[in-house]
Amino acid sequence: MTILRFLNSLTGRFLMLTFIFVMAAEVMIFVPSVARFREDFLLSRLERAQIASLALLANDSLDMDLEDELLANAGVYNVVLRRNEIRQLVLSSPIPEQIHATYDLREAGAFELIRDAMITLFDPEERVIRVIGDPVKQAGLLIEVTLPTAPLRVAMIDYGVRILALSAAISFFTAFLLFLAVRALLVRPIKRVIGAMTSYTQAPEDARRIIQPSAKVSELREAEVALKAMETELTSALRQKERLAQLGGAVAKVSHDLRNILTTAQLFTDRLEMSQDPGVMRSAPKLVNSIQRAVNLCESTLAFGKAEEPAPALAGVRLAELVGEVIEGERLTIEDFDLSFAEDVPNTMVIRADTEQMYRVLSNLVRNARQAIIATGKPGEISVAAFEDDDEWVLSVTDTGPGLPMKAREHLFQPFHGGARKGGFGLGLAIAAELVRGHGGRLLLERSDTSGTAFAIHLPKGYAQSPSDAKAPDAETAEAAE
């Protein structure tokens, strides 16, 4: 496992690749080197043969034993020397078999020498070949010898083995030096960066853990500079979020206490409304409205300031009963105002939702519609309808009010960006949209103009976990309907 872990590391892979590449380069050198060795071997045989023939030229006759000794020392079977246009067999001995091939070294090119060397190296059969070359010191026109291939092949294999062994040693040594260089120049700086990142993740709010660029390699230094900038920005963002969280907690506490104070003040303003003083009678309604808006703001801030809404507890809900409960609660608030409510919800429709959260969503939308119509002082109507198809349930809340202000439409579901009605704070729709998203659905504004406003709630029927759960809503709906 240790070896595998090392080979999977950057240094291990670099060491292995370096060895492979150096060996590949040595193999590319090996082929022409062996060809060159073969050529030198044959030229040395020609030179030995020429030296052996000089003994015969010095003495016209030699005994057979001395001639055989000269041929054996030269490593050839016979020697032919051409001098003055006369081809002369200078030394000779019996040839054990026919000549297999003839090689002329006088005009052989590089490709031809490499080809002949590879043929000799990979041919295990012992052959007899003829070699032609130029005599040394221009002692004739040409010299020609016949010789066996076995000694040549043995010498070539021995030379090749030594070359490969040397190449392997060079490869290991080069790879080791490169390994040390890479470890010093790359691996250690990279490990330092990794260590700095690990240390930073343990306490990102601690500015002392932000990396300080120190790499000498330009690319690594650029990476360290970029990492430092990212960590600095992230630390600043975390500090800002922490301050905002603390501020939010403080605001929530202040809103809670302020709501209690304003509630007490609201009780006293109720008594002011009974006063017969003309000035008080004119000022009291404005004071009551101002205090009521302040109380609403505190309550909305407290509701929105929670970390997050709890996950909905999905169950079968009879939508007609839920809508009826919401509308009944709104009817109690309108007293004698000419405002009518219409319901178009099938009695058998059962949706999969959290009862309390869906009540809050519908109540929010209906209340906004009621307040918008009452603010005009004109009669109006609020309609709640629902239908379903194979994929989703769709609930719509429509009113005949004046429509949403342009500012509200631009930031409709963003908190504290202007409410859907005058005096609102923009929290109600933001909370409603968040609750619908928790059900996997969407809260959409379908239209808003002088003829009124229409919101639509789309709730999916299918489960998001897996396609196999798609049948579950039908079973649950049927059980709730019973």
Automatic annotation (TrEMBL):
Pfam families: HATPase_c, HisKA. It is a multi-pass membrane protein. It catalyses: ATP + protein L-histidine = ADP + protein N-phospho-L-histidine. Gene3D superfamilies: 1.10.287.130, Histidine kinase-like ATPase, C-terminal domain. Its main location: membrane. PANTHER family: SENSOR PROTEIN CREC, SENSOR PROTEIN RSTB. This is histidine kinase. It comes from Celeribacter baekdonensis B30.
